[in-house]
Specification:
39% of the residues lie in helices and 26% in strands. The chain is α/β, with parallel strands linked by helices. It folds into 2 domains: 149 residues, D-Maltodextrin-Binding Protein, domain 2; 97 residues, D-Maltodextrin-Binding Protein, domain 2 (3-Layer(aba) Sandwich), CATH 3.40.190. Strands 7, 8, 9, 10, 11, 12, 13 and 14 form an 8-stranded mixed beta sheet that branches. Strands 5-1-6 form a 3-stranded parallel beta sheet. Strands 2-3-4 form a 3-stranded antiparallel beta sheet. Strand 3 and strand 4 form a beta hairpin. Helix 1 packs antiparallel against helix 10. The longest helix is centred in the C-terminal third of the chain and has 17 residues. The chain is elongated. The two termini are 28 Å apart.
């Protein structure tokens, strides 16, 4: 399969020889640059002790680089700059980000490989106080979000009566809940299930997820050759069962 994917990359760059595609530059330099926040458990988590990354997205992008015959380099970014990192050519692709209309105005997205719901997290001791989404929509309630995330905009939509507080990376919204400075926060069902395992004092609000959304990688919207290659690669890997096996490994289930 690796030979097929490399042949596909060479073909795509050959038929557009006059175009300055990232695909051609990556093959020539031997390096795939991946922007990642390292704070999206279990997709991309940075180990500060070793300065290395692990998670679902790390496994996927490592596989992509292997199939291209190049090395992968992870470029640190955060949620408020993850889009501008693409437009400024700081990296060739990002790890998972939610597809939103606002982001799509500036950056491109690959094909999606995962769908999730949005859920609120609260302290378990407050589960009788906050039983529903609507119970959190109250002027006496503080909802924390992480600056630059898609959840920041969703919180304004779901909780117009609440006090909204945006936290800047490397701090995270759920830490405000754990510290008692916020009553709740919203996040993807993907991250939520990991957080309640790591922090048993947290729990998911009982009436479940809303606002289904899709994850994909941010990519240069003007580089159709590079987009085509990555999308072909994703479809090939879906067909081979690669994504299914990885979802099982990380105990993830796409909607």
């Amino acid at each position: 399969m690796k030979k097929i994917l490399i042949a596909l990359a060479i073909f795509l760059t050959t038929v557009t020889a006059n175009a300055e595609s990232k695909l051609q530059k990556i093959l020539q330099s031997g390096e795939l640059r991946v922007g990642t926040t390292g704070d999206f458990n279990p997709l991309s988590i940075k180990d500060p002790a070793t300065n290395t990354y692990k998670g679902f997205d790390i496994d996927v992008t490592t596989e992509l680089a292997k199939d291209m015959g190049v090395k992968v380099t992870y470029v640190p970014t955060d949620w408020k700059t993850i889009v501008s990192g693409i437009t400024a050519n700081k990296y060739d692709i990002s790890t998972s980000a939610t597809i939103t209309a606002q982001r799509a105005l500036v950056a491109g997205f690959t094909s999606s490989y995962y769908k999730y719901g949005t859920v609120p997290l609260i302290l378990k001791k407050n589960k009788n106080k906050f039983k529903t989404w609507e119970s959190l929509n109250n002027k006496k309630v503080t909802i924390a979000t992480t600056l630059g995330t898609s959840q920041e905009a969703k919180a304004k939509e779901f909780f117009p009566k609440s006090k909204l507080v945006s936290i800047e990376s490397p701090a995270r919204d759920y830490q405000e809940v754990l510290a008692g400075r916020a009553d709740g926060h919203i996040t993807s069902s993907t991250e939520a299930y990991s957080l309640v395992k790591t922090y048993p004092e947290l729990t998911i609000v009982e009436d479940g997820g809303k606002n289904p959304a899709s994850l994909a990688w941010l990519i240069d919207p003007n580089d159709q050759v590079w987009i085509n290659y990555v999308n072909h690669w994703i479809e090939i890997k879906k067909t081979s069962g690669f994504f299914d096996e990885l979802l099982k490994k990380y105990n993830l289930k796409s909607l």
